[in-house]
């Protein structure tokens, strides 16, 4: 099984070591169907944020948080992706900024079915 779970600038689980903390990029070790999810929290920030899950440099899914009357708000999403060996996946902050950085965020993924 290949999976990873990243949180608070550290990797909690990285079976197979295919997630690189320095670049925050997951590289698929084999062709297959992968599941990815992310949860990003903006704190004390009145700007709208948009976070996208990128596959090989292209946005696949996005999540938004834009309520200006709360001190904390979450943007979450998940997807199943068909990936080829060496395909890359990472999160990108497309809009806004995260007060406190990524420390309130998680990014997880695992191989569902090898092809």
From TrEMBL:
Please name the InterPro entries in this protein's record: C1q_dom (IPR001073), Cerebellin_Synaptic_Org (IPR050822), Tumour_necrosis_fac-like_dom (IPR008983)
UniProt subcellular location: Secreted
GO cellular component terms listed in the entry, alphabetical order? extracellular region; synapse
Is Secreted set as a keyword in this record? yes
Residue span, C1q domain = 1-115
What's the protein here called?
A: Cerebellin 2 precursor
Keywords of this protein's UniProt record, alphabetized? Answer: Secreted, Signal
Predominantly, its location class is secreted
- Example GO biological process: maintenance of synapse structure
Q: Does the keyword Secreted apply?
A: yes
Q: Which Gene3D superfamilies match?
A: 2.60.120.40
